[in-house]
Amino acid sequence: MAIAITCILAGVATASSTPPALFEKSPILDHFEDRWIEIESFEKEKNMRAAQSHHVEYGGNHPFEILERRRLQQSMADNSIRTSDDSEKRQLSPWSPGSVYKPLRIHFDTTYIEVMKDSAQYSGHVSVLKTEILPRVAQRWKSALTVFRAEENIVIKNNQCPHSSQEQLTTGVPNSDLVIFVAANFEVICQSAKALAASRSCQADQYDKPTVGSIILCLDRLDVNDEQSKNAFYHTIIHEMSHVLAMRAIDFPFFYDHATGLPRTPRPFEPKQVTCVDGNVVRIAPPSSNTLKAGYTKRGKLFYEVVTPTVRQIVRNHFDCQIMGGARLENQPTNDGNCFGSHWEARLFATDVVAAIKVPIIQMLTPLTLALLEDSGWYKSQFEFADISPFGHGRGCDFVFEDCIVDGKIPEWGKGTFCDELSGPFSTPKCDLSHNYITRCDLVDYDDYPASVPPDRNHQYFPDHPVSDSSYILYYKDFI
After folding, report:
1. Which end of the chain, N or C, is surrounded by fewer C-beta atoms within 10 Å?
2. How is domain 15-56+100-245 classified at the CATH fold level?
3. Rg of the chain on CA atoms, in Å
4. Hey, how many other C-beta atoms are within 10 angstroms of the C-beta on 201?
5. What are phi and psi of 474, to 5 degrees?
C-alpha cells in the first residue's frame, strides 16, 4: 500500500518521490542559508515567530493609526485636537466603500536562483520561474488581497533577512508591499525525499504584518516541459506564500482586530502551559481565545480551530452548518515545533491550497484561506476572486461532525463524495474531490501490503477488513 499523505510543513511542502539533486552552492548563497537556519532554529526552540517588527511610514493615514488617535482623543476628552481631515479619513475604513486599501504588490527577488541560470540542468527552471510561474503567483495574490500601502520603500534589516544588494539595506526596495527572496535546492530543505518547498517571513511592520520573507524551492520537482507539472509548482508556491502572509500557528498571536486596530492577543504575551496536538506539553504564548480554541473529537483526539469572525462565518456558509465554531486545523503533526497546526484539516478542506496534503487533485485558493488572511487584520480579501470548493459544499453538519463511513456503508450525506470499493479496473467511475476529473475509489486492502500496519480498530472504518485510501485521510477515523 502506498501511503502518500504529504505534509506541507509550516511552510514545508512535501511529496513522495526521489530526493532532488542538490546544486553546488555558490558563496553568495551562504548568506541566505545562514539567515534561514538562524530563524528556523529560533522558531523551533521558542515556538514563536522570529520576524521582528520595524516602523514603516504610513504618513499617519493607516486605519490603525487613525483609530489610535481616536482613542487618545477620547481619553483626553479634548475635541480641539480633532481635525476635519481625521474625521474624513475615519470614514475610509478598509472594509467600506471608498477603501484606501490597494492591491498587494509582491516583489520576487530572484538573485539567489540567478546563480543557477548557466547550469545546463537548471537554466530552464530559472527561466520558467522568472517568466511564467512567479509572475503568475504575484498576479494571483494581487487580485486576491489588498493592503494599506506604505509611503516609503521596504528597507531590509541585515540582522534578520537575506539581501541581495547594499541598496536594499539603505534605500530599500521600491513599489512593493512584500519582498520575497527566492532560493533553490538548499540541502537544509531539499535533501528530504519529500520536500517541494519551504517558506517563512523574516520581517514585519509595526502592526506585525509581514513585509519580507523567503522561500526555498526544490527544482527537481519541476518538469519545465510539462504544463501539469508547472501548474502544480505554481500551486505549491501559492501555498508557501500563504505561510509567509499569515498562515502559520506562530503568526496567530500577532493578529490584529481590523475593527479596533488593536492586537487580538493582548501584549505583552503571557506564556502558558499548552498541550500540543502531538501530546507534548510546552510553555508558549498562545493566541487569545478570540483567535484559536482547543477541542476534542468524539474519540478524544485534540484539535485546534481558528474562530475569528470571518473564518467562522465562511465555514458555516460553505457547509451550511451554522453551529460550527470555526475552521479546524490539521491535528496530525506536520513538523517539529508546530503546536497548533498551520494547515487546514484535510478531512474537511482537502481541496484547499493550504491543506497539509499533496495528492493529484486540484487544490484551490478558497474563501476560507482568504478569510484567515483578512482576519489577521493585515489585509482585505477580495472574495470574488476565490475558488469555491465543491468538497462538502452545502452538505450540512453531518458532513462536518459525523464519520465518512457508517456501519461499512456511505451515509446519505456522503454519497458522491466518499466511496467504499477497493481500487481496481472494475470499480465505479466517480468525480474526484475537486470535480475536475473522473476517477475511481482508491481503497486498498492491507492484506495485500503485509509490511504496512493498519491503525487500531477504534480508528478503522472497516475493522474486520482493514483498508486505507492512498491519501490516508478520509478513511482513518482520527478526525471524529
Report:
1. C
2. Elastase; domain 1 (3.10.170)
3. 23
4. 28
5. -90, -15
3-state class (DSSP) for residue 213: strand
- Is 477 in contact with 460 (CB distance < 8 Å)? yes
Sign of the four-CA dihedral 130, 132, 138, 141? negative
Nearest of 306, 417, 413 to residue 368 by alpha carbon: 306
The predicted model scores a pTM of: 0.88
For the chain, the structural domain boundaries read: 15-56+100-245, 268-480
**Strand residue runs (E) in 110-184:** 145-147, 178-184
Cell of 458: 477504534
Q: How far apart are CA 27 and CA 6, in angstroms?
A: 32
C-beta separation of 381 from 366 below 8 A: no
Preceding amide of 268 cis, omega within 30: yes
- Classify 268-480 by CATH class: alpha beta
How far CA 182 is from CA of 1, 38, 190, in Å, comes to 36, 17, 14
CA-wise closest residue to 479 among 359, 351, 347, 349: 347
Q: Which of 103, 98, 53, 61 is nearest to 379 (CA)?
A: 103
Cell numbers that stand for 283 in this block? 510553555
Summarize pLDDT for 211-269 with one digit per residue, the tens: 999 999 999 999 999 999 999 999 999 999 999 999 999 999 999 999 999 999 999 99
> For residues 361 and 399, is the Cβ–Cβ distance under 8 A?
no
CA-closest candidate to residue 237, choices 219, 262, 211, 255: 219
Measure the CA–CA gap between 131 and 138, rounded to whole angstroms. 12
